[in-house]
Amino acid sequence: MTIELIDTHTHFDVSDYDMTRDMLTKRAYDVGVRHLLLIGLTAKNFERMLKVHKLVSNQQLVQAHLAFGLHPLYIFEHCDEDLSMLDAYLSAHQNIAISEIGLDTFDKSLAIPEIFAKQERFFIEQIKLAQSHDLPIILHIRKAHGRALQILKAQKYSAKALGGIAHSFSGGEQEALAFVKMGFKLGITGQITNPNAKKLRRVVMMLFRQFGTSPFVIETDCPDMMPVPCQHQGFLNEPANLTYVLDELAVLFKMDKEVLARQLWQNTNEALRQNWIYKS
Question: What angle do CA 113, 71, 10 make, to 5 degrees?
């Protein structure tokens, strides 16, 4: 029996995969990946996302889904016209979420007051687009969790109603609790396989003790966040490596992998307001 998985966060459209994408799609399907999300970075990449969505879908193996958005790391590139373009692409194409959006002050250049103010404005405008298009949001937040929570509350964004994922969660225990109580699922990447990721593992186990498996979804964030067991394979992570995230969580939770996979599948349905069927 094949264990089935959903990769809730990929950048599988980037050009690094152009020569190997067909092979990697089949490899992902062979290990049980049935759905993957193509996550937005900048407006200029939307057409490439559409092209890759079509290429992956034409293989009739893994189902690809679009999630256009304007990433906070690229705030220097974004302009107001990009927000209008995002609105238009959301209207013209079937999207599963707006992503990835949020706030980032990990690099000092992103924390400069006028740059951070621009991040906040683009975050707010994309939350409004999610509300008007009735779509979940997928959050990118680094070293700005408190402010992100304030903005979400001020904009009256309800993840319980619209859905949402806090991608590659890096906050602390209290911040994790706040996002979960707002209705967000936390995206767990291959970083969980690193024994030195003590803060993340502590947060995950704290939530598991309080809520069981319900707060979690899994993701590769490929080409980044390579799981430790497959770092010898090269520099590019891939959707097939999602199995390592499942394996590690099953060990941490002391759960049967298939039971856990089915629960993560249902969590993803809730986060993205879908009704995908686990067929195995």
Answer: 150
pTM for this prediction? 0.97
**Chain segment 215-269, per-residue pLDDT in tens:** 999 999 999 999 999 877 778 999 999 999 999 999 999 999 999 999 999 999 9
Condensed to tens digits (0 to 9), the pLDDT of residues 152-178 reads: 999 999 999 999 999 999 999 999 999
DSSP, collapsed to helix, strand or coil, labels residue 139 as strand
**Other CB atoms within 10 A of residue 147 CB:** 17
- Contacts (Cβ under 8 Å, ≥6 apart) of 170: 141, 142, 199, 200
Q: Could you tell me whether strands 137-142 and 5-10 are parallel, antiparallel, or unpaired per DSSP bridges?
A: unpaired
CA distances from 172 to 169, 177, 211, 226 (A): 9, 9, 16, 22
DSSP designation for 222:
B
Q: 117 exposed, middle or buried (CB, 10 Å; 0-12, 13-18, 19+)?
A: exposed
Tokens at residue 99, please?
């992503």
Question: For the chain, what is the mean pLDDT?
Answer: 96
3-class DSSP assignment, residue 4: coil
Contacts of 266 (CB under 8 A, 6+ apart): 278
CA atoms within 13 A on the CB side of 69: 36
Contact (CB, 8 A) for 110 and 119: yes
Neighbours of 156 (CB within 10 A): 8
User: Rounded distance, CA 46 to CA 199, Å?
Assistant: 34
Instruction: Using the structure block, give the residue that is written with the tokens 């690099």.
Output: 107
Contact (Cβ atoms closer than 8 angstroms) between residue 131 and residue 101: no
Please give the single-letter amino acid code of residue 280.
Answer: S
